[in-house]
Amino acid sequence: MKTIEGISASYGYAIGPAFVYKRAELVIDSCIIEDPEAELTRLAGAVETARQQLDKVYEKALQESGKEHAEIFRAQTMMLDDPELMGKVKKLVEEEKQNVESALSETVENYAGIMEALDDEYLSARALDIRDVGSRVLRILLGVAESPTEGLLTPSIIIAKDLTPSDTILLDKTYVLGFCTSKGGATSHTAILARSLGLPAVVGAGKKVRKVKNGTSLIVDGDSGIVIVKPDEITLADYLLRQETFVKVKGVAAKVAHEPAITTDGYQVEVVANIGSADGIRSALDSGAEGVGLLRSEFLYLERNSLPSEEEQYKSYKTIADAFGKMPVILRSLDVGGDKDIPYIDLPLEDNPFLGVRAIRLCLSRPQLFKPQLRAALRAGYGNNLKLMFPMVATVDEVLKTRELLEECRVELRLEGKDIAEEMEIGIMIEIPAAAIMADQLADVVDFFSIGTNDLSQYTLAADRTNAAVAKIAAGFQPAVFRLIKQVIEAAHAKGKWVGLCGEMAGELLAIPILLGLGLDEFSMNPPAIPYAKLLIRSISMEKARQVAAQALNQTSSDAIRALIQEQVPEVNLG
Ligand code: PEP
Ligand code: MG
Predict the structure, then answer these.
(1) 12's torsion region: left (phi>0), alpha (psi -120 to 50) or beta?
(2) What does the pLDDT look like over 449-487, one tens digit per residue?
(3) φ, ψ dihedrals at 157, nearest 5°
């Protein structure tokens, strides 16, 4: 028996044989050609076939995994039309007389290599897309079949280096128990697909995974992010039991997902969803979300070539806010910079972008970028319960400046005779230690806080959230972070303001009793986590939560806190 550590990408347990997913190697011969025109005609034909294939793959993805996932293939079709990429290929064919296979493969590798070198999780995923689309065209040129899934005839755990979007959509899901990849992070396509299918997955498990042979008996533990190769009998029995409990709990949690989250001693908290676009509305409502605690507005700005207009933003925010009726929807203003780039707005190149002109700092420095979003939000909030929240606030001054700009927009819109939300609640994210420390003063100038533990942890522990080498430190389950959370909640409550938390921690079962005990009012998480979080909150008392929260703050490490909760609150196992 051997255990391989990776990154947990999707909850649950898969037990079964390995199916090693390997694409046929594309052998690219390079040669000097005589007739560039004929070569480019071949390319145009292959591109057209690729476009038709991608249309079909898009339809399949739409039916199986929804619009969000399917959009990946629309983006790939756009790559086929990218004048820069295709221009480079043509140039190599026309000027260097390279054969089209070698010109295409060289250009795609150059592009993908540059993106990967930037050490950015999002761009690495895009590099995979470019390679995926490039391989599709090359396969057509070389006459190689589209899918290497022959042989997948029994339910199996898919083992791969990384799965491209096309790979994942072509897999026959009736035979997929779970996934394990050697590369990739929590936002890789494999991870996204596994979550949307509700299948367990571990990603980024390293080279050892590649040694696993077809048919080897495996366990993928998506909760702990580990893969067990050739498990012994005791381990297998243990996991079969865990799997049974998981399936049972899933059914129970789903049945009561729409009931409120009230502790056994009658204390109610709000459980809401984190969503990234209108596509998240359905899964949020189906999961029992009582609103949206974080609508990441970046969705409207990414994967395009120019800024979204005020009108486009207005319509989009309004569709989402209206879908939730009287329930709250918290729109977060644009949070770019750091690890999120928008090429067309020309962000400054910075040595430390996470400590640079990110989020509210960028928006305040560019009112022409910020004001259309503020105006769109004020208009979209008319007649529903839309609230507005600002990310990465460090000082009171930033809030005052933002409010001034917001007021300016209000005055303009009134003069233009537009309907606007006059009483919109305004909040800020607490994700920089300075903001947590100054929470008492910040509470005077906002209506609510939402704690962003993903960033609060990285800034408190000086551990880059995108750097795998310090991932465990940045994971946030640290006494230092809980102490800051306590301080923020107390400062806000003293001023009569409410506090939510929308970092990944809100959906972590081990963190929930502590956050509850510290007095958190609102828990905002990815929709699939909502039924479990509600089930847990309903099974414990506030009295117990307060007791363990006090103890957790006095532990010396994250491991000690986890052990404490496991021991003191067995309900976290939901079994
Ligand atoms: C956070 O930092 O916790 C958060 C929710 O924001 P994001 O992950 O989008 O930075
Ligand atoms: Mg953040």
Answers:
(1) left
(2) 999 998 999 999 999 887 767 877 887 789 999 999 999
(3) -95, 125
Q: Which residues of 347-382 are buried (b: 16+ CB within 10 A; e: fewer)?
A: beeeeebbeebbbbbbbbeeeebbbbbbbbbbbbbb
**Per-domain residue ranges of the chain:** 2-21+149-232, 36-142, 265-572
Distance 569 CA to ligand 1 centre (A): 27
Under CATH, what is the fold of the domain 265-572? TIM Barrel (3.20.20)
- Alpha carbons 14 and 17: distance in angstroms, whole number: 10
Alpha carbons 427 and 497: distance in angstroms, whole number:
10
Element (H, E) at 300: none
**CB contact set of 419 (below 8 Å; sequence gap of 6+):** 379, 382, 383
Task: Estimate to the nearest angstrom the gap between the alpha carbon of 403 and the chain centroid.
Answer: 29
CA 68 – CA 70 distance, rounded (Å): 6
Q: Which residues are catalytic?
A: 189, 502
- Phi, psi torsion values for 6, nearest 5 degrees: -140, -150
Supply the pTM of this predicted model: 0.70
Place of tokens 């079962």: 509
Architecture of domain 36-142: Orthogonal Bundle (1.10)
Rounded Cα distance between 320 and 328, Å, is 11
- Tell me, in angstroms, the distance from the centre of ligand 1 to residue 187's CA: 14
What is the 298 CA–ligand 1 centroid distance (Å)? 12
Supply the CATH classification number for the domain 2-21+149-232: 3.50.30.10
Q: Write the single-letter amino acid at 549.
A: A
Which tokens is 108 given?
A: 């795609």
Q: Which of 295, 335, 340 to mutate to test the pocket of ligand 1 (most atoms within 8 A of CB)?
A: 335
Measure the CA–CA gap between 69 and 75, rounded to whole angstroms.
11
Label residue 148 by pLDDT band (50, 70, 90): low
Please count the residues of the chain.
575
Helix, strand and coil in the chain, % to nearest 5:
55, 15, 30
Beta strands in 25-106 (DSSP E): none
Which atom in ligand 1 lies closest to the alpha carbon of residue 504?
Answer: 3
* Partner residues linked to 390 by β-bridges: 428
pLDDT tens-digit map of 330-360:
999 999 988 788 888 888 889 999 999 999 9
**Residue where the block lists tokens 């079909």:** 56
CB neighbour list of residue 373: distance below 8 Å, 6 or more residues apart: 297, 310, 313, 333, 334, 363
The DSSP string of 86-105 is: HHHHHHHHHHH-B-HHHHHH
How many degrees, rounded to 5, is the angle at CA 495 between CA 493 and CA 497?
Answer: 60
d(CA 532, CA 550): 24
pLDDT exceeds cutoff 90 at 164: no
- Whose CA is closest to atom 5 on ligand 1? 503
